[in-house]
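Supplementary Methods, section 5.1.

A reviewer requested that the exact input to the structure prediction be made available. We therefore reproduce it here, unchanged from the version used in the analyses.
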Amino acid sequence: MEYTVNTAAIFAAAFANFVVGAIWYTPLFGQAWARELKLDTSVKPDGKFMAKALSLSLLGNLILSWVLAWTMAAWQFLPGAADVPPIVNGTRTAFFLWLGFYVPLLISAKTWEGRSWKLIGINGGYYFVTLLTAALILAFWK
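The structure derived from this sequence is encoded token-by-token as follows.
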């Protein structure tokens, strides 16, 4: 069995997560997130900083989507995988990757960096939603 990934779906998932981040950290939780990090919201970053930050965010989303696509492709070799509906494949993949990779890092951020549970919740929710968004796009767009 040979499996390839859909490059267009990878770019779509990366862009979708870029939009999710803009919504998550601006109107939804932007003020609470900034308060938890003790950021001065009256100071606006300059254009060069924003261009670099947005470019690196997009790069990170591309890497996440690419690795996620290949992870989902690897799972297709498991017995019975062909019978799993795309929504189950995407949701299961997102949940287990979040639980296994992101949650331990969030626990460490709480333990060693003294991050608040509120900040852990905001960031942890964002990580799960971005994984789920990308995984569902990749699962349905073959």
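The two ends are 15 Å apart (CA to CA). These observations are discussed further in the main text.
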